[in-house]
Amino acid sequence: MATALYAGHVADRYNRKRIIVWFTLLFLVGTTLLFLFSVRSLGIIAVFGVFPIYLVVMISGVSRAFLYPSIIALMSQLIPRHLYTNASTWNSTMWHVAAISGPAPGGLIYGFFGVRIAYMSVLFFLLCALVLLAIVKNRPVPAFVAGETLLQRMSSVSSSGPPPCNCLLPTKCAAEWPRSMLFS
Known about the structure:
By secondary structure, the protein is mainly α. 70% of the residues lie in helices and 0% in strands. It has ten helices and no strands.
């Protein structure tokens, strides 16, 4: 909570992709530390108690505080303004589906294979996220349109852009996106 406002400010002013990479790496460090804590032969928990776990929780909290506003801001740079409402809906839907269904396979991995394999799978998926992020093209922070009102900035409709996409399937709108806009 303490870093949320500052994180939003940073996401508005600096390279969002770089922020996402650095704080995903920080999240990766936290996950690696949790993996190391689970190795009994190292005895970290036996020596320090639960303090290292609270430290990792703090690290992951700071990481998440910077990741969320940066991801949302980067999404607004990658997607044309008139398609943003539809894309935001799909993004939110997929996030909620993952948040609800994700713990099930995580619990199964933990239950059948143990805590080390569970942490290793998290490390694997974080590395996959970094690799996929590497193919996203860098974009400069967008400038405001001259004469644009606050209401227009907050809506998906630009004063000069095309009308919003009202389709239900993202494939129809995706056909309107130039490939060079998303990937390098």
